[in-house]
UniProtKB/TrEMBL annotation:
GO biological process: methylation
Biased composition (Low complexity): 226-235, 329-353
GO terms for MF: methyltransferase activity
Domain of life: Eukaryota
Protein name: Methyltransferase domain containing protein
Region described as Disordered: 226-245, 324-364
Biased segments, Basic and acidic residues type: 354-364
Signal sequence range: none
Keyword set, alphabetical order: Methyltransferase, Transferase
Keyword Methyltransferase: yes
Length: 391
């Protein structure tokens, strides 16, 4: 038995096969509430990119349109749900690790009449040769709820992908849960005596959106410090030429679990068993009734609550980060073209709730930390990076 001195409840660890079954129930239960919010964010981004491509003074990969890479496309449900009033990309490339989704994905591409291709790979986007060989970078890169599986490297993969594959003035849109419900199992683990160890390791490091933004910020700050040290040694005190600015938006959109009647509160006991089984990695139907109820309350308590007194949606939050990237003279040749980075981060919550990582969000309340220029504010956020290129 895998246990500790203070555990007392015998449980069966979920098998790999059962894990796949349980997550499908969670995904299907989430559909009514999640996609409308995702479509709002997608519409705003697509319209901006379409308008941007028509401006002669803004660099894009194509004229009168935009190109898109969707990472974690699965069966193409995002493409299938694409609003009629939202411009489609002139080129759509889907990256999906599981080839079983290929028939449905191709069908959705045909029905939407988009030109593009499908890449099946388990590698990071920057390790895929066909993407590296592209003549033009992408105007829009979408991570569709796939960063949970990338575990501790999620922030690094986002950062590398943006640096390598995103076009100047492009947008990276990340759909990610507002709280780390993949890590909820830690809260009950001490009560369990497992018959065998966990089979699905991402549960130990699944991050909330707050943690993801924080990790991206840390990576970029470390790069900035390294680059400044290199530039300091190379410049030997010589004056720098003035920088020229151009916008480089980078958006993180969060689709949080929604406990409204359309979702968690409306689930049947069998659905709850599957959701709890996935989150806590045990056969939840075998739990004692009091323990099962405790697990349900933990999930509900960690989800985003609707506040009818505000214009907050029950569907989650958007996260934005406004940063400055500086390219002093000669900086582009340093460290394979990597850039310095985050000057500030804006993080917004849409409602009253506490996240699993301990940060408390309250509506219409702003908290400022002058040291990091970091704040929480209602109702929405957009992550923005200002990219300065040396003259």
């Amino acid at each position: 038995m895998v246990n500790s001195a203070n555990t007392s409840i015998p449980v069966r660890t979920l098998s790999v096969r059962r894990n796949a079954q349980a997550i499908n129930v969670l995904i299907s239960s989430r559909k009514p509430s999640e996609y409308p919010e995702m479509m709002i964010q997608l519409r705003n981004v697509a319209r901006k990119l379409k308008a941007q491509s028509k401006r002669h003074n803004v660099k894009t990969s194509t004229t009168n349109g935009y190109t898109c890479l969707e990472i974690g496309a699965r069966e193409g449900r995002l493409l299938q749900s694409w609003p009629d009033d939202t411009p489609l990309p002139t080129e759509y490339v889907a990256l999906e690790r599981n080839p079983k989704y290929n028939p449905l994905l191709r069908r959705n591409m045909r029905e939407k009449r988009v030109t593009g291709s499908i890449i099946h790979s388990r590698r990071s986007p920057i390790q895929i040769e066909s993407l590296q060989r592209r003549k033009n970078k992408f105007d829009l890169i979408i991570f569709s709820h796939c960063l949970y599986w990338m575990s501790s490297r999620a922030a690094e993969i986002v950062d590398e992908t943006v640096e390598t594959l995103l076009h100047e003035n492009g947008i990276c849109l990340i759909f990610h849960h507002a709280f780390g419900f993949y890590s909820l199992w830690h809260l009950m683990e001490r009560q369990f005596s497992r018959n065998e160890p966990l089979h699905v390791q991402p549960h130990s490091s699944g991050s909330s959106a707050v943690q993801l933004v924080s990790a991206i910020k840390r990576i970029q700050q470390e790069r900035q410090q390294q680059q400044e040290r290199l530039l300091s040694r190379k410049s030997s005190g010589s004056p720098k030429r003035p920088a020229e600015s151009s916008e480089f938006p980078y958006s993180i959109v969060v689709a949080a679990m929604d406990p409204c009647p359309l979702y968690l509160n409306a689930m049947q006991p069998r659905q709850w068993d599957e959701v709890l089984s996935f989150i806590f990695q045990v056969e939840a139907s075998e739990l004692p009734p009091t323990v099962r109820e405790e697990a349900i309350q933990l999930v509900l308590g960690s989800a985003t609550q609707t506040n009818e007194e505000t214009d907050a949606t029950p569907l989650g939050t958007s996260l934005h980060c406004s940063t400055s990237r500086h390219y002093p003279s000669g900086a582009r040749s340093i460290s394979s073209g990597s850039h310095s980075s985050v000057a500030s981060t804006i993080l917004t919550s849409s409602s009253h709730h506490s996240t699993i990582d301990g940060s408390e969000h309250t509506t219409q309340k702003t908290i400022r930390d002058q040291k990091h220029n970091f704040w929480l504010h209602h109702p929405h956020v957009t992550i923005k990076i200002v990219k300065d290129e040396g003259a």
